[in-house]
Amino acid sequence: MTSRDAPEYTRLDICKRFVASVKHSTLLELDVLEAGQDSVRVRMPYQDKLVGNPDTGVTHGGAIFALMDQAGGLANACLIFPDFEITPTIDMRVDHLRAPRPGHAVVCEAHCYRLSQHVAFVRMSVFEESTDEEPASDDLLATGLATYMRMKLPGVSKVVN
Amino acid sequence: MDALKTLVESCRRGETPYQMLIERVPYARFLGIEAVARGEELLFILPKSDTNLGNPTLPALHGGAVAGFLEQAAIIFLLLEMGEPRVPKTIDFTMDYLRAGHFRDTFAECRVTRLGRRVANVHISAWQVRRAEPIAIARAHFLLSEETASD
């Protein structure tokens, strides 16, 4: 912490406020569980409206992709904290290692492992949560790799004031 | 004959609108995807909707919503190409964001680069104003069959 007054808000506050401002993410019911120095954990509950295959009830890969994209942006915000920038995605690759089981919430861990002057580099992993009936599997559901562009908006250096 | 195969064949014959392939997928309805035939080509549309907004101040579409749109477009496109239509499973999906997705209708078209027996490679392009100015392009692999190599 610098000699400035300690901010009255935390990384978790910033992340939650950020997600709340993104309409699509609120509809995906994304919930930021943890926000660290350079990483976040974001949860997406199982929802019937996100099913991609009606015969199996498996969540659509696009919904998983959206969760991971959002989590990556939040990981950037954590590392840029206490300043705030928007970081549009440049590119992102997702590998779907196995299908999420119907009924299980999924959690994305995103880690911004390099923040250069213009670009943020992020890795993501997606796991499933347990349900009342079934324990969670330790197996990864999906992995992701993304780059984001740093956009310093004049006058918008702080998300909370 | 299974229901999906019956539906796909009916769409191919032009007796059922392609939109029916979208309507059976909850996530595709959630995004509001539309599919229309243009001659023998298939055009996908993501009509502008505030439910797909990402950045609220610009305003811009959520990158994840655009990615989901393109992934679903590729799945429908592949279903229509397959001899025995079964919902393809996404192996990997790679998205390049080229321009901001503005708050307006988005269009997409697919090109199957390779349709193998087990794996398909698809290229998808999305635009808003002009086809020649894509806002995003994607490349994906799909698993078409659970057959093992020895089958």
From TrEMBL, chain B:
It holds the Pfam family 4HBT. GO terms for molecular function: thiolester hydrolase activity. Residues 61-130 form the Thioesterase domain. SUPFAM superfamilies: Thioesterase/thiol ester dehydrase-isomerase. It comes from the Bacteria. This is Thioesterase domain-containing protein. It comes from Isoalcanivorax pacificus W11-5. The lineage of its organism: Bacteria, Pseudomonadati, Pseudomonadota, Gammaproteobacteria, Oceanospirillales.
